[in-house]
Fold:
Amino acid sequence: MVVLAIVLGPIIGGLLTGIDRKITARLQGRFGPPIMQPFYDVFKLLGKEKFINNKVQIVYVITYLFFAMLSFVLFVLGQDLIAIIFVLTVGGGAMVMGALSVRSPYSQIGSQREILQMLAYDPLLIITAVAMFMVTGSFKVAEIVNYQIHNNTPLLYVLPLVFIVLIEVLSIKMRKSPFDISAGQHAHQEIVRGVHTEFSGPYLALIEVAHWYELMLALGFVAIFFASNWYIAATLVIVMYLLEIILDNTTARLTWKWMLKSAWGFGIVLCAVNIIALYFI
Amino acid sequence: MGLINNSRAKSPWVVHFDCGSCNGCDIEVLACLTPLYDIERFGILNIGNPKHADVLLVTGTVNPRNERVLRNVYEQIPEPKVVVAIGACACTGGVFADCYNVIQGVDKIIPVDVYVPGCAARPEAIIDGVVLGLQKFQEKVEKMNKKAVGN
Structure:
């Protein structure tokens, strides 16, 4: 199971990214790159010259990849949600530290913005986990899934508002427009390339692979909202992903202040309303 | 290794440096990204960061004030890399070749692999130039591999 998750995770994640790029191109009236393009990019980057500013950077990149991998594996094994969120945050923090270790203004601003993004989505993710605990009585992914299968009540029915907040969390986590403020995706540029500015060659490839693991984890979060029926869960994930791509293409980038306001104001209030409502059902 | 070498030609990321062009060639470079030409079909992305790039597109006349910047951008691109000089000004200095402040061509400063003529160069010509650059790219990679084996 662990090996399967480690191998299949980035393969599916990469394919999804390829599909994302194709759909994005079609939405913009372009033909778009082949679906396999993300893999070509990563293999090419692996073959590039190693360009580093300091050796600490390498450690941070590998830490980031390791923790992204670990969080996905923990999720697949059905472990504790809080631990998964914590591991995910440690990975994100490692990448920010790597970017901060270089005296490049782009990298510095990018990492500050990345910290703000983490500050925006982390509380929401934890509240999501808490809301799931309120319903199912466990933080463990396996137990949450079991609860839904036994009671045949998908979490989506009892936590619809939390699910709406998860849409925003996903776009912040995946750095999709309007929240791509710390680093642009694909050909978009934001402060050159934000946190990724000073990573190049093989290290950028590792970051990309880590990003695929995170994408898979984020979609996993969506899937457990309808764990009572896996076909509907898969459909839900696909619909969610398409929604993110359409949002990405129809919205313009916003400032970090707006992101914090919407994530904390809108997100926390919606989650709170949902959790309070649980007491009355 | 085969997989990596095959992928190189399929994902050339381009960084565009304007040495002081009249912006004619720059507009044509950007026109390559539009739906009509869409160079992302070939996996080409317009990247702002030389550290991520494979291909350097240079437009405009080089002069003693910006040759330092050009060399800096060139050196920040990790190997293997290809330089494409776009437009008459970048290739030879163009109509400004005799000006006291103009250096006659990008190749006086950094090694250039492909020259794309035209004033301004048409997007089709630029795409042809980048594709030709990719062949040079493969040759460079093969040379690099031979060197690695030789060592």
Summary: Chain A touches chain B through 35 residues (CB under 8 Å). The first helix of chain A runs from residue 2 to 27. Residues 2-128+152-278 of chain A form one domain.
